[in-house]
Amino acid sequence: MNLTLTRNRFDDTGVYGELVSDDGSFSCVTLEHSYQSDDGDWLPKVPPGVYLCVRGQHQLHSGPIETFEVTGVEGHQGILIHPGNAEGDSEGCILVGEARVSDMITNSRVTFAKFMELQEGLDEFQLVVE
């Protein structure tokens, strides 16, 4: 199922947003690692645009995981959607969680399982990043 990522906070603790399915049946909060630009703004690796996300086996620090890679990000590869609770759990990947509490997101593994259940039977989907 196609998804839209809308970001709503950019600072030195991360880039925060909301990920919502096209039909509204799934939504969660997101957290991405932030990088300071030359002009002092805090930015993620994935700029606004439309991306194809492709299912595959990937290696995280915690071990192997089946998830989706956000493809077509200029200058970057290996950007995944995966569980994690703090900015340090991401090197540019999109972390998913149930709620934002201070500078973290909660219940990431449960939320990730729901995300993968939503995409059951699909090898790819479209991600719109705003």
What is shown here, in short?
This protein has one helix at about 110-120; strands spanning about 5-10, 15-20, 25-30, 35, 40-45, 50-60, 65-70, 80-85, 95, 100, 105, 125-130. The chain has about 130 residues and is mainly β.
Furnish the topology, listing elements before pairings.
Layout: E1 3-11, E2 14-21, E3 27-32, E4 35-36, E5 42-43, E6 49-60, E7 63-71, E8 79-83, E9 94-97, E10 100-101, E11 104-105, H1 108-118, E12 124-129
Parallel strand pairs: 1-12, 8-9
Antiparallel strand pairs: 1-2, 2-3, 3-9, 4-5, 6-7, 6-12, 7-8, 10-11
Protein architecture, described:
The strands form 3 sheets. An 8-stranded mixed β-barrel has the order 1-2-3-9-8-7-6-12. A two-stranded antiparallel sheet has the order 4-5. The protein contains 1 helix and 12 strands; from the N terminus they run βββββββββββαβ. The chain has one helix spanning about 110-120, and strands spanning about 5-10, 15-20, 25-30, 35, 40-45, 50-60, 65-70, 80-85, 95, 100, 105, 125-130. The chain has about 130 residues and is mainly beta. It has one domain (about 5-130).
Keywords:
single chain, mainly beta, two-stranded antiparallel ribbon, 1 helix, 12 strands, 52% strand, globular
